[in-house]
Design goal:
mainly alpha; Helix Hairpins; 2 domains; globular
């Protein structure tokens, strides 16, 4: 029976629990944010948007719910952008040549980012334009 080397790498992390698991997860998250910042221009642009929008939300919002909606909508854009970038990276790794399914996956990820930006725009308009 052959032993898949990738399995042993996965197994060494699956058994972690408690603080070790939490620290590992935080490290992976840090690495993911760093990779997004380094490799994705759209993510960097959206982080700059967030750096302006979040303080603006704190200043303009009248209630805690308003602040949560404004800030949450901006964070949602960042989340969707990271997921879109992850899909693109996996698609590129799986098949660097052009394929209709690869194009579909990438286009759908891009559409998700567009919808998250539209969502943020609508939320900001509804909260700030009574």
């Amino acid at each position: 029976m052959s032993h898949d080397p990738d399995t042993s790498v996965i197994d060494q992390y699956k058994g972690k629990q408690g603080l070790t698991r939490l620290l590992n997860a935080l490290g992976y998250s840090r690495d993911g944010l760093a990779a997004a910042w380094k490799n994705e221009a759209a993510f960097r642009e959206e982080v700059l948007l967030a750096a302006v929008a979040i303080p603006l939300a704190l200043f303009l919002a009248q209630t805690g719910v308003d602040r949560a909606l404004l800030i949450g909508s901006i964070l949602f854009v960042l989340i969707v952008e990271i997921l879109n970038s992850a899909v693109e990276a996996v698609v590129d790794k799986a098949s660097p040549e052009h394929h209709e399914l690869a194009k579909r996956a990438k286009d759908m990820g891009s559409a998700a980012v567009l919808l998250s930006l539209l969502n943020a725009t609508v939320i900001w308009a509804c909260v700030l334009w009574p």
